[in-house]
Amino acid sequence: MEKVLHKGFKYDTVPEKYVFPPEERQKKLASNKSIPVIDLANAKAYIGLGHDEIVKQILEAGKEFGVFQIVNHGVNNEVMSKMLEVMEEFFNMPLEKRVIHYSEDLCKPVRLFTSTGAHDIVPLWRDCLRMAIYPVENFKQYWPEKPSNLKETVERYAVEMKGLTEKIFGLITEGLGLEYDYLNGGLSGQPMISHVNYYPPCPDPSLTFGLAKHCDPGLVTLLLQGDVSGLQILCNGEWQAVDPVPNAIIVIYGHQMEFVTNGQLKSVEHRAITNDMQSRISIATFIQPAMDCLVAPAKKLLDENNPPLYKSFLFGDYFANYVANLGDKLKLTEHFQNTTP
Ligand SMILES: O=C(O)CCC(=O)C(=O)O
Ligand SMILES: [Fe+2]
């Protein structure tokens, strides 16, 4: 396989190997409901005016869609735009400057790869710079030296993402009636990882995917998508676009959130499509349990009317299954559902 897809020029035609079989290609989108945009301006660490409404909206969005966008989230807008800008610069650097980060070693804290970097049947129209970003002091040394302001920008972004995670977790646990820090500790104990997804312009987006249908493995994914559309979610069997909202961050519930909340919050299946006019960058930051963390439905959410729908398992076991099944939610759910009456 080629080391990276993006070589800094526009392709004239889609190379054969990137073409998906006709039955798997995108079909018409549903244009009904739009994904909720939740304004966090009045969300406080304590109960205040407007706060209860925000908690309610977050839970409802989780029950219905498994995804929502947030605005006035407190993350510095300049940090977000700098992050997108510096990553665009990274992917526009000459190939020889980028390719030094290419690696197939899954354990590396920073690596560039193409497609999923795994055993794809049809490769995806995507390159990805994967970086462990938090705790900053453990990983900063591995981040790319070029562009020269990359390290400083990623550091600021990582700190903002950490703060935002705590804020969102506080709102979710409050809404569910769990202890305030229930989702902290082991359940979000893995270092924070960001995937900087780069989708070069594609001559025929109807034939390819930037990312194929998957659910995210962790608790939540915080996604920055700039102003180019491309994210789609599967909602009641129909695909729907999540169009960009200025300065918004998309919150995607991952599969562990569904397990921990005993199915109260849904993990949404999603994909990314390509675009023939512009390249697109999205930055996904994953909050995931430590590999040795025991994941199980929260006891407070169980009673005789709400028996556990899932088994308890080590996140490491889940993750091995996730990789083997390419993030297929149905297969993973079957594997971890509780079959004892
Ligand atoms: O590019 C996007 O909008 C989606 C990215 C994504 O789903 C992921 O990185 O897991
Ligand atoms: Fe994803």
UniProtKB/TrEMBL annotation:
Molecular-function annotations in GO: metal ion binding; oxidoreductase activity
Record-linked InterPro entries: DIOX_N (IPR026992), IPNS-like_FE2OG_OXY (IPR044861), IPNS-like_sf (IPR027443), Oxoglu/Fe-dep_dioxygenase_dom (IPR005123), Plant_2OG-oxidoreductases (IPR050295)
- Which of UniProt's keywords are assigned here? Iron, Metal-binding, Oxidoreductase
Q: Name one Pfam family in it.
A: 2OG-FeII_Oxy
Q: Where is the Fe2OG dioxygenase domain?
A: 188-289
Q: Oxidoreductase: is it a keyword of this entry? A: yes
User: In the UniProt record, does the keyword Signal occur?
Assistant: no
Question: What SUPFAM superfamilies does this protein's entry cite?
Answer: Clavaminate synthase-like
The record's section on PANTHER family has: OXOGLUTARATE/IRON-DEPENDENT DIOXYGENASE
Stated family = Belongs to the iron/ascorbate-dependent oxidoreductase family.
In Swiss-Prot or TrEMBL terms, this protein is called Fe2OG dioxygenase domain-containing protein
